[in-house]
C-alpha cells in the first residue's frame, strides 16, 4: 500500500539512489509506458511549486513519450536493482518492453496517468510545467565536450510534484 508523504520528506533517498546507480523515470501510458534510468535530477521550489527536474535527450524513446503526455513518474529503486537499472539505461523501449524484460509490475498512478513500478518503494508523480533545451552556447567551457561530444543535448523537464508516495512495508 502506498502512503503519501511530503514532497521533500525523503528526498535524501532519491539523491542516494542517484549517486549509487540511478532511479527510474517512467513516461508514457498504458502499454507504451517506458522506464528509463536517470542519473541526474534536482528538487526544489520554482514558481512557488515543488518541482523535480529531469533531463532527457531528444534521441531517447522516452523523450517522445514524456513530450506527448506532459507527465512523468520518478521511481526510487530498492537496493539490489542494479540489473534492472542497467537494462533500463542501456536498452531502448523502441526495441523491447522494459517492464516485461525487468519483471516489473505496472501500478496505476494516483494523480497522473503514468504508471509506477510496483517493485519500487518510492514514487514522485509529476506534471510538466516547463521545458528548456540545453545548448552549447549556454554551457560553461568543457561541459559540452565532456557530456555532449555528439551534440545530443538534453531537454530539461520541470515537473510539478503532485504527489510523493512511500510503500508501506508488509510484515
Write the layout of secondary structure elements.
Blueprint: E1 2-5, H1 11-20, E2 23-27, E3 34-38, E4 41-46, E5 49-56, H2 61-69, E6 71-76, H3 82-90, H4 98-102, E7 106-107, E8 116-117, E9 122-133, H5 143-147, E10 155-167
Antiparallel strand pairs: 1-10, 2-3, 2-6, 4-5, 5-10, 6-9, 7-8, 9-10
Protein architecture, described:
The chain is an alpha+beta fold and 171 residues long. It has one domain: Roll (Pnp Oxidase, Chain A). It is 22% helix and 37% strand. The chain has helices spanning 11-20, 61-69, 82-90, 98-102, 143-147; strands at 2-5, 23-27, 34-38, 41-46, 49-56, 71-76, 106-107, 116-117, 122-133, 155-167. The strands form two sheets. Strands 1, 2, 3, 4, 5, 6, 9 and 10 form an eight-stranded antiparallel sheet that branches. A two-stranded antiparallel ribbon has the order 7-8. Strand 2 (23-27) and strand 3 (34-38) form a beta hairpin. It is globular, with a radius of gyration of 15 Å. It starts with a strand and ends with a strand. The model has no long low-confidence stretch (mean pLDDT 93).
Distance between the termini: 12 Å
CATH class: Mainly Beta
Can you count the beta strands?
Answer: 10
What's the rounded overall pLDDT mean?
Answer: 93
In the CATH hierarchy, what is the superfamily? Electron Transport, Fmn-binding Protein, Chain A
Query: Proportion of β residues?
Result: 35-45%
Low-confidence stretches: none
Q: Could you describe the largest sheet, including whether it forms a barrel?
A: 8 strands, antiparallel
Oligomer: single chain
Q: Tell me the helix content.
A: 10-25%
CATH fold-type name: Pnp Oxidase, Chain A
The sequence of SSEs as H and E is EHEEEEHEHHEEEHE
Label the CATH architecture.
Roll
Rg value: 15 Å
* Count of helical regions: 5
Q: Describe the global form.
A: globular
| Overall tally of domains | 1
Classify the secondary structure makeup into a structural class: alpha+beta
